[in-house]
Amino acid sequence: MPRAAKKPPENLTLIAEWPLSPAATLGSSVRAKGILLEIRARLPLKLRKALDVRGSALILRMAEGAEADFAAISATVEKALVGIESLEIIPREIEDILTIKTSERHRWLKDGRLPSAGTRTVKLRGRARKITFHVFDPRMVEDLLNGDRVEAWREEDAETAAENRRRAAWKAKLKREAAKTQPVSPDSGRDAKTGQKLAGWDEFEREFLR
Known about the structure:
Elements: E1 14-19, H1 22-25, H2 29-40, E2 51-54, E3 57-62, H3 67-80, H4 91-98, H5 102-110, E4 119-123, E5 130-134, H6 138-147, H7 149-181, H8 201-208
Antiparallel strand pairs: 1-3, 2-3, 4-5
Helix pairs in contact: 2-4
């Protein structure tokens, strides 16, 4: 069955653009998309897709004849962008900004190296369930990025893991040696010197020790 012809794009002659500063995006396309979604949430549902992000800039495109909506959305965007650099950073954004794994985020959050700025609870679209997650201060994240702290933390974690492995191996060795030197109980049915099972012990135990 042949595909239906695509509807030709509308003549989007009303265009506005708002560049996002490096302090706002911290060099992350994921963060830029997060800012877009944050601002879209303040717009009427049917008009949200008129606002998009290209690179590090928000772009509003609307068709001729929608001047009133265009002006209203533009005003909302401009208002929302005031102080946008202070918008809290969510988990997927901090992972992209710092180039870290989810496991690293969890570990460093737990041990205090990655301080939380609080939590946010959101409802998943189309679902009744809500999720709660930690958010982070963008200036703290910027300091970590500029100070190259992440690599230092990874080196610390590697050293700690190596030390833990050495301790585990040493404990296992001590346990094995202790097992070898542990005295054999006289009624165990084993030779006190060799530790081997004595011949006929099972029959003797059934006849006389029970």
